[in-house]
Amino acid sequence: MVLGAYQLNGTTDRINISQSHTSTAAHTLELFVIVNNPAAYTYKPIVYFGYTGTSLYLQISGAGPYYFEFQLLGAACTGNPWVTSTTPIVAGQKYHIAWAHDGTWGAIFVNGVKELNQSSGGNGGCARTNTVIGGDAGGNYFPGIIDEVRLSSISRVTSPNTATTYPVPTVPYNMDANTVLLFHSEETGGFISNSSPSATFTKVGSPLLINSPFPL
User: What is the mean pLDDT of the chain?
Assistant: First the structure.
């Protein structure tokens, strides 16, 4: 088994995930990422969860200076409010990014520090339609390095509106009862290992498995 991270080229590379689940009002999305060139790849999804009528994903913002943006689950499975970080992305820098939502409040954390919180109605019960790491269903692809993607059915911090920090992992995550999806960037014999419930990971293009530069 090789423990690592995936380097994606921004043109064809991505990881498609087949896994059925429904959204939950409380949730956390987090991962490690390095952005190669944010100015050249605006609006490119880093990780994408498509649901019926709405979505949950992380992308690069569209105007410089460039930031991380979360598109949230919309109310009643429609609408797509946004939350944007406040620290400009530096090309080649290592980041841990987390979005934690308790059903009422959500907050974005960059390298363990909260940058913005927002009151937004939580949404649950939307059926997942597709999940892509390093892109989306519309042919938009991300160039950079991704590792340790985790989606949870709870907020991993208590009271995101008042919390100021987020625990940045120093070892790979383990499965627990609240883990919806867990992507370790592991391969055995060229096949991506199944790190989460009922998930099948499929490489598209030529994602390159490298030694992980994470944690921070």
Answer: 88
Is the pLDDT at 74 greater than 60, yes or no? yes
Residue in the block written with tokens 């429904």: 22
CB contact set of 100 (below 8 Å; sequence gap of 6+): 27, 28, 106, 107, 109, 155, 156, 157, 160, 163, 166
Mean pLDDT of 115-130: 82
The pLDDT, as a whole number, for residue 194 is: 63
**Rounded distance between C-alpha atoms, residue 10 and residue 134, angstroms:** 8
Please choose, from the candidates 59, 65, 115, the residue with its C-alpha nearest in 3D space to the C-alpha of residue 90.
65
Beta bridge partners of 3: 186
Under CATH, which number does the domain 2-210 receive? 2.60.120.200
Confidence check: pLDDT of 45 > 60 = yes
191 Cβ neighbours under 8 A, 6+ residues apart: none
How many CB atoms neighbour CB 199 within 10 A?
Answer: 18
pLDDT tens digits for range 9-36: 999 999 998 887 888 889 999 999 999 9
